[in-house]
Structure formats: structure tokens, C-alpha cells
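Two proteins follow. First one:
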Amino acid sequence: MQVRIEDMSSRMLAWATACAIGFTYGEMEGEEGSLVVQLPSGPLRFIRAKRMAPILNHGRWAPESDWQQAGMVVDMLGVSPRRVSESGDEQWAASVICKQNGIEKRFEMRGANATQAICRAAVLAKIGSSVEVPPGVAMALNLQAASRTDGNVINLHDRHPRPGHSASADA
């Protein structure tokens, strides 16, 4: 299943960012339905867990909302965020320059905030304008296809309850 970058947020964007910067990911043994990434220094960070205890023990991977983790992406790829304003609507943009086939290219994406724009730019530069989501990852993130947009690209909506609607660890 292909997902466009501009349709990504929350855990989907966290997973795609981890892929873009070369982190390994998978399900943690004994934590069915979990999705974790392994940082280069070795520790595991959860994108999703059914229980809160593993998240408390290992931490969460959420560069789209955590400045320390987004800073890691900035440092690794040289992403540059900036504030942009169009027709009074303030957003963030982030750009990164990467070599593809020996030619330097500039990639830019926008987001509702700086960390989201940073992650989207990293994914665009390293993976492309859409990301192939393996079935196991889609299941772990509890995503459902909402509507087809162009060809095989699908807009996804997260089925998880919003904060305040559930006591689960799926925030």
C-alpha cells in the first residue's frame, strides 16, 4: 500500500522518518501488535504499544512532535526548517539537499509545525513522494484505507481514539 507524505502525521510519519534515516523497525517480542524502532546507539523506542509499561520502560519515537528527536533528523540530514506565511495562513516548511545519481537536489515539504515539516522533508528526500507501507506496519499502526486518490496511492486515517477518549497507550 502506498501512502503520500502529505497525508502522513503522527505514528505513520514517525515510522516513515525512521525508515528515511535508516533505523530498523519491527515488533518487540512479547508485545504483540507493537511497533518499535532501534536507534543507532542501540536503544528501542516505541511508535505503538498496546500497554503503557513498554513505552514507560523504553520511551517513544515521535520525531514529528519531539524537538530532541527532530533535531536528530536535522543533524543527520542537514534539514533546514523555516516559517512560511501565505495569505495570512502560517505554516512551516523544511528543506534538505541530497545527492541523487551524483546530482544535488533540494527537497522541500510543509507541515503544521516545524517538526512535522522536518520529518516530511526527510522522507521525501530519502524515500520519495509516497511510501510503501508493509501490511504488518499498517496493521500495527491500526490504519484503514479511507479513499483512493490517484492510482494505488491511498489516503489513510488513523482509527485510534483521540486523546481524552481512551485510557490506552495508543496516543
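Second one, unrelated to the first:
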Amino acid sequence: MLTASLRSRLAQLRSASARAVILIDGGAGSGKTTLAQEIVADWPGTIELVSLDELYPGWQGLARGSAQVPRLIKGSGFTTWDWTHGRPGPRRSLKRALPLVVEGCGAITEASRALADLALWVELDEPLRRRRALARDGAVFATHWDEWAAQETAHWQEHRPWLLADLVLPG
């Protein structure tokens, strides 16, 4: 998924920015995590990767997780979410000097975009996203798909993240 256009943007960031901040948004199962992992693997040197799955406070937490992204970009760490026990987990530290990739549903809002160097929207139709997500996460996600999809829709209606993105990429 590292297209020529994206590779060019990443090369510009590597040469121009002391601390590049990259946001990757899209629906569940669209390929955000895969794209983030490809960027990290291609990046020369160390780069921080944060998945919003680490900090959504449960299945009803997309909006709250999304609202944390600006603080995450400006801060030195965040409190993770313990999905097994349904409560806050340990704190994860971030090194502010390192480039940062934040991926997840809700990563791109007006507030987070203002703090980022590059914003990417990953586009894929819902039936294929659903098949991918359920193949990846199984029955646990299957029971929550509709409630998560409703939160995605609300986020998209409020923020229109694809319009804030520098590039819209196929999933």
C-alpha cells in the first residue's frame, strides 16, 4: 500500500521534519494497521507507532479515544486500555523526539490534523472491511460490529476525515 505518491510524501517528511507526525484513519478492517506497519518498516531509524485500539475505553469508546489524539501527539505518553478486564491499563511512554504514527478509527479530526504533518485516509467498502475485521478478530468483534459501525458513522458525519486527509488510499 506504499504508493509512489505516499513514498514521496514520506521522503519529504523524513528530510524536513524533526518529528514527523502521521495520522492514519479509516473504517474497521480497511487496512490502517497494515499501512502503519509498512510505514514503520520502511522508515529509517526508530519511529513510534500507536494504535488507537490501545486507548479506546471499551466498545463505546471511539469518540473518547479520538478526542485523546491531540494530547497523545503533544504528550509524552498515555494510559492504555485493558480490554480483558474492561478498565484502564498501564501507562505507555512515548519519546517526543521520535517520529510518530497514530492509526485507528477516529485518528483524523480537525484538532489532530492541525498537529500532524501527514494525514492518510484508507478507503474500503463496508462488506470487505467487515469480512476482514471479523476474520482478524473473530466472534469478539462480531458481537460489537454494529455498535462500532454506528460510532464510525457518527465520527465520519461530524469530522469528515477523508476531506482532512492529504491522501486517500485504497485498502
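SUMMARY FIELD: DSSP finds nine helices and seven strands in the chain. Strands lie at 21-26, 48-51, 77-82, 87-93, 100-103, 118-123, 167-170.
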